[in-house]
Specification:
Number of strands: 15
Number of helices: 8
Order of helices and strands: EHHHEEHEHEEHEEEEHHEEEEE
Keywords: ATP-binding, Ligase, Nucleotide-binding
Number of domains: 3
Strand order of the largest sheet: 1-4-5-6-10-9-8-7
Organism: Geoglobus acetivorans
Strand content: 25-35%
Radius of gyration: 21 Å
Structural class: alpha+beta
InterPro entries: aa-tRNA-synth_II/BPL/LPL (IPR045864), ArsR-like_HTH (IPR011991), Bifunct_BirA (IPR030855), Biotin_CoA_COase_ligase (IPR004408), BPL_C (IPR003142), BPL_LPL_catalytic (IPR004143), HTH_11 (IPR013196), Transcriptional_repressor_C (IPR008988)
CATH class of the largest domain: Alpha Beta
Protein name: Biotin-protein ligase
Bound molecules: biotinyl-5-AMP
GO molecular function: ATP binding; biotin--[biotin carboxyl-carrier protein] ligase activity
CATH topology of the largest domain: BirA Bifunctional Protein, domain 2
């Protein structure tokens, strides 16, 4: 299902949450009562339950609730369309084919991690990719991964979430979210794809149980829609500050990160670094103090060690 974010039916949806008669809605939005009825029918098909008398009123919503998600997406600068799927291979793959859009799926059959790894995407999780025409140089992409990490960590802050450099968000040292930023286009003017996976109500497969966590294990009443709405709010707030307030975003990253001050081993494309994570520099690179002195690493796999 595709929802255009400037579609007035989103405003109609807001009215239907409060309750309104077909006649009132038709008048307010300048449409026929048949179009109101068709929209009500579409909502019912999508899993919403509406009371019909004395007015139309939404009394129960599915989780995820696509129209609440679309309303939240309206806040993100530059977004025009929302593509909502029950199942796809990978939202990042699909996001590359569309512009100025968010692509969400209830489950992914081939969710992607970095360097060809798999992202387990059972139903009940949150899988979303943003395709944004930012036209920035490719070397800005690591910054957007950090920005997205701040958005996710703020969204899950009440569960004690912390960021692990560069693209993981952890709760009690277990991974609850991963971010995959990619680009499409030219090196000096890239379109950016920011893919975010969050374990919300999905089962964690056995082989990942000791290193991954789903929010439902901490909060039985967690909802995908609520997490999504908060994520959009945080992302939109951060995107409005990027790039002009990059340094303050980086400051927030440092405050939410569990990496700085830890002993780490970093695997960076075959090279291995070992030392104390000291800081993040202005480009988003991790500075670690090794035997050779301070070194800066732009991307890699980070492990915490105990010595
Ligand atoms: C990531 O890769 O963490 C990036 C994950 C991005 C997923 C989103 S979902 C929406 C969008 N569409 C996509 O196709 N992808 C994005 P990486 O740092 O390479 O971590 C991958 C590793 O995390 C795997 O090798 C597993 O060890 C672990 N892992 C896999 N699935 C997991 C899950 N659901 N929860 C926690 N850890 C997981």
């Amino acid at each position: 299902m595709k929802i255009e974010l400037n579609d007035r039916r989103l405003d109609m949806f807001t009215e239907l949450k409060k309750g309104a008669s077909g006649e009132e809605l038709a008048k307010k939005f300048g449409v026929s009562r048949t179009s109101v009825w068709k929209f009500v029918h579409k909502l019912e098909e999508t899993g919403y339950i509406l009371e019909r008398r004395p007015k139309y009123r939404i009394v129960s919503k599915p989780d995820p609730s696509p129209f609440d998600m679309a309303l939240a997406l309206k806040e993100i600068p530059g977004l025009q369309n929302f593509h909502y799927f029950r199942e796809v291979d990978s939202t990042n793959r699909l996001a590359k084919e569309v512009e100025n859009s968010a692509v969400f799926a209830e489950t992914q059959s081939a969710g992607r991690g970095r360097i060809g790894r798999k992202w387990e995407s059972q139903r009940g999780g949150l899988y979303v990719s943003f395709s944004l025409n930012l036209s920035i140089p490719v070397n800005e992409i690591p910054k957007l991964t950090l920005l997205a990490g701040v958005a996710v960590a703020k969204t899950l802050e009440n569960y004690g979430a912390r960021i692990k450099w560069p693209n993981d968000v952890l709760i009690n040292d277990k991974k609850v979210s991963g971010i995959l930023s990619e680009f499409v286009g030219e090196e000096l003017s890239a379109r950016v794809i920011i893919g975010i996976g969050i374990n919300v109500k999905n089962e964690i497969p056995d082989h990942l149980r000791d290193k991954a966590v789903s929010l439902k294990e901490i909060d039985e009443s967690v909802s995908i829609t609520d997490v999504f709405v908060r994520l959009c709010r945080n992302l939109s707030e951060l995107m409005k500050r990027y790039p002009s307030e990059w340094e303050s975003i980086l400051g927030e990253w440092k405050g939410l990160s569990s990496t700085i001050g830890k002993h780490v081993v970093i695997d960076a494309g075959g090279r291995r670094y070992m030392g104390m994570a000291m800081d993040i520099d202005i480009d988003g690179g991790l500075i670690i103090r090794t035997e050779r002195g301070n070194e800066k690493i732009i991307s890699g796999e980070c492990f915490y060690t105990n010595y």
